[in-house]
Amino acid sequence: MSTYRIDKVEKLLKEELSNIFLFKLRDSSIGFITITNVKASPDLKKAKVYLSVFEKQKRDFVIEKVRRDVKVIRSELASRINLKFCPELDFYIDDTQDYVEKIDGLIKKIHENDNEQNTTNS
Question: Is CB count within 10 Å lower at the N or C end of the chain?
Fold first, then answer.
């Protein structure tokens, strides 16, 4: 299957899953969730869905709840997309923001050390 079609399907899945989470599965206990990425298999039978959870301490709770509700989510998704098969969905936490924060902290620490060295040398 062409990468163009796979990319289109991934974008469609991301958009529709975002709408499902926003409008159909509103639950104050899980907080704010963002679908950051969707990666479909070449045959479009499976899709990895990456979630970003605003409240870090709720990540485990959110992923468990979403995995429990996967049948409802997949059923809703199937009714929204026009594909022969609705892909199996695997949900994962996207920890990219944690990595960015860690790198940012390290850079700030380096700059603080540079500033301290510059003031002691002056």
Answer: C
